Amino acid sequence: MIKAGQIRAARSLVGAKQLDLAKASGISLATMNNIERGIGDPRASTLGAIEGALNDAGISIAGDSRTETVTLNVLYRPKIYETLLASQKILKILGPNSLNAADQIVFFVRRCGEGAYADVEGLRICLLVRSKDRNLLFDRINFSIENVARAAEIAGVMLAAFALHRNHLSYIENILEDTTTLDDFDALSRLRAEKWFSMQHPKDFINLFSNWDDLVARYVSHPGHPLVDLNDLVRKFGPGDSVS
Questions:
Q1: Within a domain: residue 241?
Q2: Would you say the pTM of this structure is higher than 0.85?
Q3: How far apart are CA 121 and CA 112, in angstroms?
Q4: pLDDT at position 238
Q5: Shared domain check, 202 and 125
Q6: Residue 31's pLDDT band (boundaries 50, 70, 90)?
């Protein structure tokens, strides 16, 4: 399990205060303070929650009888093919208690496989979350809008992005070839080579490969669908307004 010295070192690497890590771990500041001071005998579940929050921030913890290591991964590119799990993880990363202070969130679309057909079923919705020290690339996930459930997952991600990071959203106008065929840093370089446009409204992005108004009309009959909630949210604010 993670040790007090590793927690302090990890916090230093991600620039987090004790309170920040306590919130991200779901524990009290007093408990966090005691753990770092070596007071008491914390539960394994508590230490697991701390390590999990640090893992989400890009920290890898390792050690043996001779060494203890704390590593910050500057590029995180998970392989999460289950879209519900992926959306939950991204929502946590974008959430208010996350240790990832997103400086920019870039949405883009890639083709699904070499020579994939051009319609919406052959496309996957992806995003890059950038912070001062890290890049989180989510392109190995099968996000799409091909049915109610899939549309809800990506709409939920966009809802969190607009609600919490409205002034840090961008999109790539071109539909890219399958970036999953590239290695991690080549994929990141491919995205950096594209021009990024400020996203003032979800339709700026959605209309590249579908039709925003048609989607809203299709799902308006589903109470609580995130796409409808997203539409209601952006209608309340003008371009560039802060949403909180």
A1: no
A2: yes
A3: 9
A4: 59
A5: yes
A6: very high
